[in-house]
Amino acid sequence: MIKVMSPGLQTTVQDNGRIGYYEVGMPPSGAMDKYSLTVGNLLVGNDENAAALEITYMGPVLQFQEDAIIALTGGEIPPKINGQPVPMWETLSVKAGDELSFDFVKQGARVYLAVAGGIDVPLIMGSRSTYTLCGIGGLEGRPLEQGDELNIGNQSKHQVPVGTRVQSEFIPSFSKVNEIRVIVGLCSYRLTEESKQRFFSIDWTVTTEANRVGYRFKGERLNFVEREQPFGAGSNPSNVVDLGYPIGSIQVPDGVEPIALLNDAVTGGGYATVGTIISTDLDKMAQIKTNEKVRFVAVDIEEALQARKENKQKIEKLKQQLFQL
Amino acid sequence: MLTRYEYGGDEFIFVELSESMSLEVNFQAMAITKKLREEKVKGLLDICPSNASYMVRFNPEDIHPDELISKLKELEQTVSVDDFEITSRMVDVPILFDDPWTNEALMRFRDRHQDPTSTDLEYAARINGFGSKEELIKAITDYPYLVSMIGFVPGLPWCYQMVPQEKQIEVPKYVRPRTYTPERAFGFGGAFAVIYPVQGAGGYQLFGTAAAPIYQKEQSLHDFKDSITFPRQGDIFRYRSITMEEFQSIQQQVEDGTFRYLTREITFTPKQVLEDPKAFSDDVLGRLYV
C-alpha cells in the first residue's frame, strides 16, 4: 500500500485511457504523456497499460507501506527518497516506510510514477484512468487527497533489476519554445487564407488555462471567412453545426484564443476546428507549461504517420535494450 | 455542396456531409455509420455519428487513413436513406420549465447574455416571434425531437425537433459561455435542445430542468443498468412540461430507485418523417401515451 501524506497540485491515477466510448461523449482520459508512462511501466516490468500516478507541476509526498519497485519518468520534477535525491528514468527499489517527495519542477510539467504491479483501482469501462469531470475511474473519480491509500496491483510481467537505466537517447529533452506538428483541416475552410498562414507563423503563449481538458493560447486574433451562417449553427462566425472534436483538435472560439483539446476534453460542440495535433506530439504538449511558447508546424498525413512509426520503433528498441530480447 | 473528408490528425477522419443542419442530413449520417458498424472494418475504434457530419477514430497501424477514406466515400455512394429503417425508443422526458435552479444560474451570468434585462425564456420567445414564454414552451413541447448526436460530455443528447424548417426554433448561444450550468439543465442553442448531464460550463440558453437524470454513474436506476448514459442517437424524445408537484414526485422516485422513463420501441423510416412530420409526430405521441 502507498499512503498519500500530501497530494501535490494534481495527482491522478492514469493508464492508456478509456478507448471506444467516444460516441457516448466519453473522452479517453489516460496519461497525457504516453511515452513517459510506457517507459515507466517498462522499467518496473509492468504490462504497458498498467496504471501509474500522473503528477502535475508540484509533486506529492507518498509513504510506501510495503517494499516496492518503482520508476519515475516524464518532466523533471526532481524526486527524493527519505530526503535524498534519486535518479529519474531508472528502476528503483523502495522499502516499507520510505517516503517519496519532490523538489520544485525544473523542466516539463508532468511526472509518472510507475510501481511494479501497477496502481490497483477498479476498471471502469475498460480503464483505470481518472476522469474528474464526471467523477469516474482512478481513486473515487478524483485527484488524490491527503490520507488516501493506494493498493498495488499484480500487473507485473517481468522482473527488472534495480538500477536498470534508460540511455540518454530515450530521454526526451524539454524547451520553453516548442514546435508542435499539426495537420491542418477539419473546418479550416472557415479561416481566411491570411489567418491560416498567421496561425503557423507566430509564437503562441500558453495561458493559465492549461490542464487535462485542454490548453488555451494567447497570440493574435484570427479571422473567419464571411458567410451567412448555415441553419442550426448559431450566430458567431466561429460557430458550426455542432460536430465531433478529435483529440488534439484546435478550435478558435470567436477567433480570439485557440484551444487545443486534450485527454479529458469535450467530445463535440459548436466551434469550428481548424486542425489536429499529431498523436506523437501530444506527449510533448503534455510537458508544456503556462507562459511557455508553442509554434505550430503544418505537416501532412504521411509525415504524421512517419513520426508515429518512429515513436513506436523507439519504444521497441528500448524494450530490446532493457530486456535483451 | 460536396462532402468534406478531413484528417483529424493521424487517428481520426472527420466527414462533413453538410454545413447546415437538416433531418435529411442527420438520417444520412446515421445510415452511413450504421452500415460502417455492420461492416466491422479492422482498426476502427470509434464511430461517432453527429448532427450534419460524422467522425471515426481508427488505429493507423491496422488501416491507412486514405484506405479508410475510400471506404467511407464508397459508403456515401451506396448507402441510401430511402431503404433505411431505424429501430429506436420513444421517450417521455419530463421538464420543469422556468424552474428556480436554472433561473438562479442564468441571473448570475446576465452580463454574458445578449439581453441582460430579460430571462433566457423571455428573450428566446421574443426573437422567435412568440407572444409569451408560455407560447414558446408550447412550441417546444408540442412536437418530439430526434436525438441527432451524443457528446460534449458523457450522455448529452443534441435534440432536433421533427418539424419543417420554418417551424424550427433557433436561438444564439450566450455571448460568452457561463462557467456554471446546473446538473440536468434543459438548454437550447442553435437549433438544438439539450440536457446537461452533469454540472459544468455551457453556452446554451437555459429554459428548465429535467426531473430525472440522463447520466448515472452509480447505475442504480433500471434505465442505467447497461450504460451510465441514457440517451442514444436515433431516440425520439418528447419533452413534456410538468408542474413542481410532479417534479418533486419524480425526484422522490429517483431517490427511491423506482423511477423508470416511459419508453416505447418504434421502427420508422426517414421517409415517414420527412414526407409528413406532423402526421409522424402525432403518431409518436399517440403511441407513446396509449
Structure characterization notes:
The complex is a heterodimer of chains A (325) and B (290). The longest helix of chain A has 23 residues, at 301-323. In chain A, 14% of the residues lie in helices and 31% in strands. Chain A starts with a strand and ends with a helix. In chain A, helix 1 packs parallel to helix 4 (301-323). Chain A folds into 2 domains: 2-170, no CATH class; 177-305, Cyclophilin-like (Cyclophilin, Beta Barrel), CATH 2.40.100.10. The mean pLDDT of chain A is 96. Chain A has 4 helices and 21 strands. Chain A is elongated. A 7-stranded antiparallel β-sheet of chain A has the order 7-6-9-4-1-12-11, with no helix packed on it. Chain A is α+β, with helices and mostly antiparallel strands and 325 residues long. Chain B has 290 residues and is an alpha+beta fold. Chain B has 2 domains: 4-79, 2-Layer Sandwich (Gyrase A, domain 2); 87-288, Cyclophilin-like (Cyclophilin). Chain B is built from 8 helices and 14 strands. In chain B, strands 5, 6, 7, 9, 10, 12, 13 and 14 form an 8-stranded mixed β-sheet that branches. In chain B, strands 1-2-4-3 form a 4-stranded antiparallel β-sheet, with helices on one face. In chain B, strands 8-11 form a two-stranded antiparallel ribbon. The longest helix of chain B has 17 residues, at 23-39. The N and C termini of chain B lie far apart (43 Å). The interface between A and B is large, with 51 and 59 residues.
Summarize, please.
Chain A is α+β, with helices and mostly antiparallel strands. In chain A, about 15% of the residues lie in helices and about 30% in strands. Chain A is elongated, with a radius of gyration of 20 Å.
List key phrases describing it.
heterodimer; A: Cyclophilin; seven-stranded mixed barrel; elongated; B: 290 residues; alpha+beta; Gyrase A, domain 2; Cyclophilin; four-stranded antiparallel sheet; 14 strands; 31% helix
